[in-house]
Amino acid sequence: MIVLDVLTGLLLCAAAFFFVSGTVGLLRLPDIYSRLHALTKADNVGLGLTVVALMLQAESWSEVFKLVLIYAMVLSASATVCYLIGNEAHRRGQRPRRSGAN
Amino acid sequence: MLYLFDLVLLVVIVLLAWRSLNDADLFRGTVSFIALGLLIAVAWVRLRAPDVALAEAAVGSGLTGALILSALVRMRRRGRDAPRPNHAGGAIPRRLIGVLLLALFLCLCGAMLRLAQWPEGLTETALAELPASGVSNPVTAVLLNYRSYDTLLEVAVLLLAIVGVWSLRRAEWPGDVRESYPLLMPLLRIVLPTLVLAAAYVLWIGTSKPGGAFQGGALAGGAFVLMLLGGFGRRALRHRYRMRVALSCGLLVFIAASVGTMLLTGEILRYPAGFAGHWILAIEAAALISIACTLGLLYLGGRPEEAGDGTPVNRSVNGSKNGSMGR
Amino acid sequence: MSVLYTGAALVLLLTVVLGLVRVFRKPGSADSLLAVLLFGSTGVALLLVLGKGLGWSWTLDVALAFALLTAVLGVAFVLRGWPGDGTDVEDLRR
C-alpha cells in the first residue's frame, strides 16, 4: 500500500517538525508560561501526528487501541501537569514577561 | 542511520549519568536521573530486552525519580540540600578510585568480548524446556520456574526494605490538595483506573509476552503513589493489619507454594506437571500486590500510624478539614 | 520504510537532548519541571517510532507504561518538589 506509506511518511515528517518547534520554543521563549505553551501544545500535536501515522501502519486492532490509549493518557497528563505548573508558578509570584521592555 | 542513533544515545547516557551524580544542584541531578531512566529504557529497547525495558520505564524513570524527589524535599526542609562542593576525601584517593574503576571497566569489556566464544550458554536448554514450564515467555519461565528460588528471596528482600523503612520513622502525610487544584481529580479519575488495568494486563500477558509481576507491580505502585499524592488513602493505610497483610502476601504465598510443591511433588518449587502455569500466575498475582504496596509505602517514607495507639497524629502540611475522604 | 522510522527516532532523540540543554542552563529553576513534560510526550513518541522501526510490537506496552508513569511523576514533581523559592529572577531580567 504505497499510499499508506507515503501518508505515514508525511505525517511523521510533520510530527518531527512539531516536536522540533516545541523544543525550539522551549529554548527561545522568554518566560515559563510561554515555554509551557510551546512544550505542551506543539509536543502533543507532534505526538498525535505520530500516533495517527503509526495507526495507519498498525497490524492489528489491539495496536490501534493501545496507540489511542497512550495518546489519551499523555494528553490528559500533559494538560494537567501544564496547568499545575502554571498555577504554581503564578502562585509563587512569577509574572509573565511583558513585551516592550527592550 | 541506526548506528548514528546508537552513538548519540550512548554519549548522552554517559553524560547524563555523569551529571546525575556530579551536579552540585541536587534537583537538577534528579532531573538528569529521570532523563537517564528514559534513555536507558530506550537502550534496552535497542538491545531487544522487552521485559527489562518495561521494568526500566515503569520503575527506573518514574517511581525512582519520585522517590528521590521526595527524599530531596525532606532534605530541603531540614536545610541540608545546599549545593555542596564535590571535593570530599581529597584528590589522591579519588584518583586512585578512578584508576581502579577504569581497570574494572576494562576487565568487564574483556569479559564481554570473551563471551562471544560461548554464544549459546543455557539458551537452548531453557528454550527446549519452555513448553513444560507452564508459560511461553522465557523470561517469566526463568524467573518463576527455573530460578524461582531466587525470585522468592528477591521478594523477601523487598519486604525487608519496607520493614527497614518502617523501623526508621513515621510517615509524613502529604496534605490534601484537592481543593487547591481542581484539575487534579479529573486526572486521577482518568489515570488511576488505567494504571490498575494496565497492571493487571501486564501481569496477565507476562506468561506469553513481555511483562510479569514486577512490571505490573511497578504500574500498580505508581497508582498507589498517585493516590497518595491526591490525598487519598490515609484512613485505609492506618488500619492495623491491612497494609501488613498486603505487604507480606507475596512472600507468604511464595512460601506456601514452596511448601505445597514440596508436599505434592517432593521437591521444593517443582510445580505439578500440567499445572505449572496456574501456580506461577497465583504466585505472580500475590507478588504484584506486595510489590505495589511496597513501592507506594516506600514513597510515603515511613510507618503509617495505627489508629488508636495513643501517639499524636502527624499534622499534614496543608491540614485536612474534616478528615480525609480516604477509603 | 524503516529508514523513515529510524530517522524520526534520531530527530526525536536530538529533540530530547536539546530540551535537556535548556533544563541545565541554570540551577534550581522551574524549567526542570518542564523537562518532565518534555519526556512525557517526546519520550513516548521516541519509544513508539523506534519500536515500529525495529519491527516489534512490545514497545507499545513500554510506551504505555512510560506514559502512565510520567503522569505520576509530573504530579509528584509539581505538588511536592517545586525547586527553589519560586522566583526565577533570571527569567524576569531577560
Compile the SSE list and pairings.
The complex is a heterotrimer of chains A (102), B (327) and C (94).
Chain A: H1 2-28, H2 32-56, H3 61-91
Chain B: H1 2-22, H2 26-46, H3 50-77, H4 91-114, H5 123-128, H6 130-133, H7 138-146, H8 148-168, H9 184-205, H10 213-229, H11 234-237, H12 242-265, H13 276-300
Helix pairs in contact in B: 1-2, 2-3, 3-10, 7-8, 8-12, 8-13, 9-10, 10-13, 12-13
Chain C: H1 2-23, H2 31-54, H3 59-80, H4 89-93
Radius of gyration of chain C: 16 Å
The profile of the biggest β sheet of chain C is: none
**Total beta strands of chain B:** 0
Multimerization status = heterotrimer
- The count of β-strands of chain C is 0
Largest sheet of chain B: none
Instruction: Give the helix proportion of chain C (percent range).
Output: over 70%
Class by alpha and beta content of chain C? mainly alpha
- The coarse overall form of chain B would be globular
**Strand/helix succession of chain B:** HHHHHHHHHHHHH
Helix content of chain B: 55-70%
Which whole number gives the mean pLDDT of chain B? Answer: 84
Estimated share of beta-strand residues of chain C: under 5%
SS element count, helices of chain B: 13
Q: Mean pLDDT score of chain C, rounded?
A: 80
> Looking at the structure, what is the overall shape of chain C?
flat
Low-confidence stretches of chain B are 315-327
Describe the protein's architecture and organization.
The complex is a heterotrimer of chains A (102), B (327) and C (94). Chain A has helices at residues 2-28, 32-56, 61-91. Chain A has 102 residues and is mostly helical. Chain A is elongated. Chain B has 327 residues and is mostly helical. Helix content of chain B is 69%, strand content 0%. Chain C has one domain (2-85). Helix content of chain C is 78%, strand content 0%. Chain C is built from four helices and no strands. In chain C, helix 1 (2-23) runs antiparallel to helix 2 and helix 2 (31-54) packs antiparallel against helix 3 (59-80). The model of chain C is unreliable at 85-94 (pLDDT under 50). The chains are: A mainly alpha (102), B mainly alpha (327), C mainly alpha (94). At the B-C interface, helix 1, helix 2, helix 3, helix 9 and helix 10 of B face helix 1, helix 2 and helix 3 of C.
